Amino acid sequence: MLIGMVAGETSGDMLGAGLMHAIRQRHPQARFVGVGGPLMLAQGFESITPMERLSVMGFVEPLGRLPELLRLKRDLVTRLSSEQAAVFIGIDSPGFNLRLEQSLHDVGIKTVHYVSPSVWAWGKGRIKKIARAVDLMLALFPFESDIYQQQGIPVHCVGHSLADRIEPGQDQAWVRQQARAALQVPETAPVVCLMPGSRKDEVQRLAPVFIAAALQCLVQKPDLQFVIPCANERRREQIDTLLAQALVDAPTARQAFLVTDGGSHQAMQAADLVLLASGTATLEALLLKRPMVVCYRLSALTWALARRLVKVPFISLPNLLAGRELVPELLQDQVTASVVSAEVLSWLDDKARQESLYDAFEAIHQSIRLDADQQAAAAVCQLLDEAAH
């Protein structure tokens, strides 16, 4: 049985790998083809192009890559239709995957979209496209199901696999101590984890601001330590270059920065606070019960378009899931070294504020801990069984 899959970024690679494993428990002979990352490749996935070729964010940025993306879409339709794929599962990356799902649906292949596009944020026009292209929506969060049910689109809320992997109710002082020992970070120093994103353009916009803010924080708190986990080798090279540029006039500050290959989980566990780009990492920080400052910065043209289209009061997952502001969000022009450093310092100096988040984070953790990999696999296999009869 051939199953098509496309994951466009690190978080999708994790979801895809978990889903592959759970499907193989039911269908050991299943083969998986499409676009995936290292976790999926490690399970025998056949990727026809590197996953990073799909990691483009915004409205305007993908236009420069349009010929390549159209060619990739055509190649996938040809391959999956000629080999009669049993089902196609698009994991997130809705700009690419929904169009691909429409084409595959038109030639009779069952289609699943895993991770609901933000229809609740961008208005409901997109829901009609989803209804035409998708046989089953796998949503991560309970609040997302209603809109699909209202439109008659089959939907299954599976929770989030990160919530399954991270144990709730842990002793956070012990967890922090263990993580710091592993990273060789001083046990008593204040530690901030910097996570400017996993995409090249995102890192280019945010990392210089994060590093400049860190340097300003060091003036007030000279014992501060900063840990920067890098999503992959290319991001490591990019971060190292940006850090070197920022420290030309402050070479002695280099000892305050620890750059690691991967290990975002451990880096967050070691931290008192996480400064990060909006995205899946905010959910990881929530599940690890870490206070955070969330930043969101797009190109000027994309931001101008987004401001007209966005329909929700929050952009970060912790605030969306809570339905109120739990963590600060700094948007676009607010993302400056002075504003970011002031926000970071105010959180580091307010232990009561940090601790007030714990119960809210714990409640959200429990609400989305639903055994996502198995739930998603069961829903996909049920769709296959129904199609076979």
TrEMBL record:
InterPro entries per UniProt: Glyco_trans_19
Reaction equations catalysed: a lipid X + a UDP-2-N,3-O-bis[(3R)-3-hydroxyacyl]-alpha-D-glucosamine = a lipid A disaccharide + UDP + H(+)
Pathway: Bacterial outer membrane biogenesis; LPS lipid A biosynthesis
GO biological process: lipid A biosynthetic process
Pfam family, one: LpxB
GO cellular component: membrane
UniProt EC number: 2.4.1.182
Gene3D superfamilies (alphabetical): Glycogen Phosphorylase B
Highest taxon, organism lineage: Bacteria
UniProt entry keywords in alphabetical sequence: Glycosyltransferase, Lipid A biosynthesis, Lipid biosynthesis, Lipid metabolism, Transferase
Coiled coil: none
GO molecular function, one term: phospholipid binding
Record-stated family: Belongs to the LpxB family.
Record's function text: Condensation of UDP-2,3-diacylglucosamine and 2,3-diacylglucosamine-1-phosphate to form lipid A disaccharide, a precursor of lipid A, a phosphorylated glycolipid that anchors the lipopolysaccharide to the outer membrane of the cell.
This protein's name: Lipid-A-disaccharide synthase
Gene for this chain: lpxB
